[in-house]
């Protein structure tokens, strides 16, 4: 029912706008109810003038309710959240060590995130330009579009599984059975709730995921730096755990013993072998608002690498690294 000029607005802006329909509808009905007891000509005119507005609001509310029912039928709503089978599968390994994607956003990435499962796709308002360009080359097409809001993978045949592995995507979820040489079927899950019944398939990416925090295998300083689009295209040629860095560093002897994410302090806590070396955080956004510390001392030698990662040079005798998000 939206007029054509509003097509220029993004979908999420329109939906947020429509959320105000319910309180507006209530206010208008309240005005009419109050005026009902006042039969003056002026109030009668007001009531008549509000009639088309009420009609539009009724249609709008009906559309919102229909959209809600369709969403529940398609995505499961609360039923898919309370059904714990998907979460139980991912509990077999530490969920902070990998990412997942949902083909056609089904199951919804937001539901997976609510279960503590790290997703590469989904609905965000903080997607950086760099993340959007990398997202674009996660498809077979070259980067030519900025995905500023909703980032979803809708066409299996367009996926670049090697680039997904670079972004640490280990699992792909689908509501349909898939035959693809790059995917390994790990589990079929049957959701059989009162109002929602559906099968989901969990596949593992054949390409090994790079990891969230890792030491690179190779550092390359020979790449195009001035052309942003071509820079992201070059990432397709990188080998496993190879990084583009404008400064040629030695990888060093650093080893990562273990790490964990401290949700209360919003920081990663990394234990190392106390050797100097090159550490990469694969966090899929630019290094702004990120600080690294060793024994409360700020580690200033950091840089943006591979479009979605930050490298940190770790000094000697630093057995514990703290990465904080401001």
Question: What does the model show?
Answer:
Strand 8, helix 9 and strand 9 form a beta-alpha-beta unit. It is built from nine helices and 17 strands. The relative contact order is 0.10. Helix 2 runs antiparallel to helix 3. With 326 residues, the chain is of the alpha+beta class. It is elongated.
Quick overview of this protein structure:
By secondary structure, the protein is α+β, with helices and mostly antiparallel strands.
Walk me through the topology.
Blueprint: H1 11-18, H2 21-36, H3 41-75, H4 78-82, H5 85-90, E1 99-102, H6 109-114, E2 122-123, H7 129-137, E3 150-151, H8 161-166, E4 169-174, E5 183-192, E6 197-205, E7 213-214, E8 218-220, H9 228-234, E9 242-244, E10 256-262, E11 267-272, E12 277-281, E13 290-294, E14 297-298, E15 302-305, E16 309-314, E17 320-325
Keywords:
326 residues, alpha+beta, 5-stranded antiparallel β-sheet, 4-stranded mixed β-sheet, 17 strands, 30% helix, elongated, disordered N terminus
What is the percentage of strand-forming residues?
A: 25-35%
CA-to-CA gap between the ends? Answer: 43 Å
Q: Helical content, roughly? A: 25-40%
SS class: alpha+beta
The strand line-up of the biggest sheet is: 10-11-17-13-14
Mean pLDDT over the full residue set? 80
Task: Tell me the overall shape.
Answer: elongated
Please count the beta strands (DSSP E, at least 2 residues each). 17
**Rg to the nearest angstrom?**
25 Å
Q: Identify low-pLDDT runs.
A: 1-14
């Amino acid at each position: 029912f939206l007029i054509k000029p509003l097509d220029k607005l993004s979908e999420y802006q329109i939906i947020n706008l429509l959320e105000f329909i319910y309180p507006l509808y209530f206010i208008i009905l309240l005005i009419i109810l109050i005026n009902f007891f006042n039969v003056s000509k002026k109030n009668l005119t007001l009531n008549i003038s509000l009639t088309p507005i009420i009609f539009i609001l009724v249609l709008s509310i009906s559309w919102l309710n229909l959209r809600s029912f369709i969403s529940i039928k398609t995505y499961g709503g609360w039923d898919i959240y309370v059904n714990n089978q998907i979460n139980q599968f991912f509990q077999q390994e530490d969920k902070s060590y990998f990412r997942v994607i949902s083909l056609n956003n089904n199951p919804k990435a937001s539901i997976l995130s609510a279960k503590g499962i790290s997703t590469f796709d989904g609905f965000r308002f903080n997607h950086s330009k760099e993340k959007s360009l990398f997202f674009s080359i996660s498809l077979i097409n070259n980067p030519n579009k900025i995905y500023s809001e909703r980032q979803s993978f809708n066409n299996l045949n367009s996926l670049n599984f090697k680039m997904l592995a670079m972004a640490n995507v280990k699992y792909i979820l689908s509501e349909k059975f898939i035959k693809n040489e790059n995917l390994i079927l790990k589990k079929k899950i049957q959701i059989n709730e009162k109002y929602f019944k559906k099968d989901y398939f969990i596949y593992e990416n054949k390409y090994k995921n790079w990891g969230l925090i890792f030491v690179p295998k190779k550092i390359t300083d020979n790449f195009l730096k001035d052309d942003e689009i071509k820079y992201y295209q070059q990432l397709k040629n990188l080998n496993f755990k190879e990084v583009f860095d404008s400064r040629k560093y030695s990888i060093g002897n650093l080893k990562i013993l273990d790490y964990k994410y401290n949700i209360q302090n919003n920081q990663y806590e990394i234990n190392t072998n106390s050797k100097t070396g090159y550490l990469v955080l694969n966090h899929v956004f630019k290094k702004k608002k990120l600080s690294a510390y060793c024994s409360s001392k700020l580690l200033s030698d950091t840089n943006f690498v591979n479009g979605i990662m930050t490298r940190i040079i770790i000094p000697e005798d630093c057995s514990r690294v703290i990465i904080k998000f401001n």
